[in-house]
Amino acid sequence: MQAVMASLRVYGQHQPIVVQKQGMIVRVGNARLEAARLLGWDTIAAVVVDETDIQAVARAIADNRTSELAEWDDEMLADQLQAIEVEGIELEMVGYDTNTLAQLLESLDPMSNKAREVAESIANAAKVTTCPKCGHAWSG
User: Fold this and answer.
1) Of the residues 19, 67, 84, 134, which has the maximum number of CB atoms within 10 A of its CB?
2) Cα angle vertex 94, ends 88, 98, to 5°?
């Protein structure tokens, strides 16, 4: 809900909710409506549709399911999230965070984490440690 609230707060409402005329039931956009209420909004854009209960339920299911079935171009998404971060926009404003971005980047380049671990291991092995009491030095 926080991501929806942040989006509404920063970008405003760019998509109306859908309300079934019979009973004035929100069929699409329940999260946006709740977020708007939590933000203290007293109005929200809506489209009222004259549908049967079954048609309205089918619309709601289709709206949610088609969102679930949508696919991202992960490379493009990673590039865009990094650009957003570079511009100083918090990733939470678009529903992501730095951990999710890191996981996405790792999934695109699984060797990057292994390479980082190897580099750290080499760097740690090259460090020289000196005993503060006797002055003996060793590496590793």
Assistant:
1) 19
2) 60
Longest alpha-carbon distance in the chain: 87
Q: Is 19 exposed, middle or buried (0-12, 13-18, 19+ CB in 10 A)?
A: buried
Please indicate, yes or no, whether residues 115 and 57 belong to a single structural domain of this protein.
Answer: no
The structure tokens listed for 35 are 């977020």
Q: Count CB neighbours of 115 within 10 A.
A: 11
CATH number at residue 7: 3.90.1530.30
Q: Are residues 88 and 109 in the same domain?
A: yes
pLDDT in tens, 32-41: 999 999 999 9
Rounded to 5 degrees, φ, ψ at 122 are -65, -45
Asked if 16 and 46 count as a contact pair (C-beta separation under 8 A), the reply is yes
Total domains, the chain: 2
Q: Which candidate, 80, 75, 63, 65, places its Cα nearest to that of 26?
A: 63
- Evaluate whether residue 136 is within a structural domain: no
Note whether 71 and 38 are within 8 A (CB): no
Whether pTM exceeds 0.70: no
DSSP-based three-state secondary structure for 139: strand
- Domain end call among 54, 69, 84: 69
